UniProtKB/TrEMBL annotation:
Coiled-coil segments on the chain, per record: none
Segments crossing the lipid bilayer: 289-312, 336-360, 367-387, 402-423
Name the UniProt record assigns to this protein: Uncharacterized protein
Key words of the record: ANK repeat, Membrane, Repeat, Transmembrane, Transmembrane helix
Cellular component aspect of the GO annotation: plasma membrane
Any one Pfam family match given in the protein's UniProt record, by short name: Ank_2
Keyword Transmembrane: yes
Length: 472
């Protein structure tokens, strides 16, 4: 009996909404305060109020039970999602007036998009401002494909929306979001260049006329999962027009700026969120430690080289003028001093090269580089006098001195070692990117069964009619 009474009350309340009769509504609610919890509603009252644009009823119902606004329509969208797509500022303002935070974070079933994402896709600047004023933190929400609002603004070609979002992100100290990467490794700059949107590219990059740019790290040379930078994507554009060619110019200017500022550790530590992504060799502390360690290695190499004749006097004298076979190198029949000298040569050559590169970035870098070359040639001269003078048969008639064989062996070892390290890093990077991509695809399938995207342009009349049918 009670259930029947509640159903009767709910029907009368829906009639009051339909007739826009607030006088009939008030006594029914006063007599049945728990009707929203107990009654079986033939239609969601807040959705009906939105469809009929009964703003007073939206506010009243929202104050009593705001959870009704979370009910999903077809495709898993809420009423706020739908009116953000249409750009209906009045309806969005009415729903925002409910001050119900969960409504701003409600996600659809397709790509886990919140209402702000839908507004950004359509370029609804006024709606974006309303949503951000009500819930500023929603600017950091990601879709199931790890896209930020900036990714969506660049993908759906909405520079006005991008400018509004960037201004709000600066106020919230969240401008690092512009450098975030989606599940495919694409940053906002990648997408803006691919879509040939010069205005968005300019907003992505630091201001070249200032010394600090935006004040946050824009990684112009960041690579996506395919190993492509933004400049690589530009080079794939067939027959770029005049405006598009300007993108190439400002990208190259930004790359030069990034290289010139790469030694400034403060630039990369402005946002702690990205500090973990900074290459370790870019920090000043790491460079200082590396300089000290390399200097110790070079000094140790010179000390050992000068001391070898003292440590191995008998072996040093006994091997002079001897002739060995090349196979004796592998069998370990060469004098021990030869193997030690080869190892020292590898150590000193590698240390000198790395040290010269690090010193070249300092003031008077050319002079430092010259000093590195001088140190290396000094070692070669010292090694020539320290190495025992024996020879090795190469073929039937040719002979190779111990000194030149030591140099060839050291250079070959450095080359093979560098190649192995490079291939290992490539394999590890490819495996990591593949595993990350597979994981993101699996998560995307779990959270979003459909991968359909909304069209880029504003919805046609047919789409609006379908939306109204979903509401009804």
């Amino acid at each position: 009996m009670a259930a029947s009474n509640n159903s009767s009350v709910s029907s009368k309340l829906l009639d009051a909404i339909t007739n826009d009769d607030m006088e009939a509504w008030q006594p029914l609610i006063s007599a049945n305060p728990k009707v929203f919890d107990l009654a079986v509603w033939p239609e969601n009252p807040i959705i009906l109020a939105c469809k009929l644009r009964r703003f007073a009823f939206i506010l009243v119902i929202g104050n009593i039970k705001p959870e009704l606004a979370l009910q999903k329509i077809q495709d898993g969208t809420t009423v706020l999602h739908l009116y953000c797509i249409y750009g209906d500022v009045e309806m969005v303002r009415a729903l925002v007036g409910l001050s119900f935070e969960q409504l701003y974070y409600a996600k659809d079933r397709e790509l886990s998009m919140i209402p702000l994402h839908k507004a950004v896709m359509r370029g609804r600047v006024d709606v974006i401002s309303l949503l951000l004023s009500a819930c500023p933190d929603s600017i950091g929400e990601l879709t199931s494909e790890k896209q930020t609002v900036f990714h969506l603004a660049a993908e759906y070609c909405n520079p006005e929306a991008f400018a509004v979002l960037l201004g709000e992100a600066k106020k919230l100290n969240k401008d690092y979001l512009i450098d975030a990467q989606d599940c495919y490794g694409n940053a906002v700059l990648h997408i803006a260049v691919q879509n040939k949107k010069l205005r968005i590219v300019k907003m992505c990059l630091p201001d070249l006329t200032s010394t600090t740019g935006h004040g946050f790290p824009i990684r112009v040379n960041a690579k996506n999962m395919k190993g492509e930078t933004a400049l690589d994507l530009y080079n794939k554009i067939p027959e770029p027009d005049y405006e598009t060619r300007h993108i190439d110019f400002i990208l190259r200017e930004a790359i030069q700026r990034e290289v010139s500022l790469s030694n400034d550790p403060g630039l990369y530590h402005h946002h702690p969120k990205w500090s973990s992504n900074i290459p370790p060799w870019r920090t000043l502390e790491t460079k200082n430690v590396l300089l000290v360690v390399l200097a110790i290695f070079i000094g140790l190499s010179f000390t050992l080289t000068c001391s070898l004749p003292t440590f191995f006097p008998k072996e040093y004298l006994a091997t002079i003028a001897l002739v060995f076979e090349l196979k004796d190198l592998v069998n370990g029949k060469f004098p021990l001093i030869f193997y030690i000298m080869s190892f020292i040569t590898v150590l000193l050559t590698t240390s000198t090269c790395i040290l010269s590169v690090l010193l070249y970035s300092l003031p008077c870098g050319s002079l430092m580089l010259l000093g590195g070359f001088a140190t290396f040639f000094l070692y070669l001269l010292l090694a020539y006098f320290v190495m025992p003078k024996f020879s090795v048969k190469v073929g039937s008639r040719r002979r190779l001195s111990s000194y030149y064989l030591m140099l060839i062996l050291a250079i070959g070892f450095i080359f093979v070692g560098s190649l192995i390290i490079h291939l290992g890093n490539c394999l590890i990077s490819r495996f990591y990117n593949y595993a990350k991509c597979v994981t993101n695809k699996v998560l995307s399938k779990v959270w979003s069964p459909s991968k359909k995207r909304l069209p880029i342009r504003n919805p046609s009349f047919k789409i609006q009619m379908v939306g109204l049918e979903m509401l009804s």
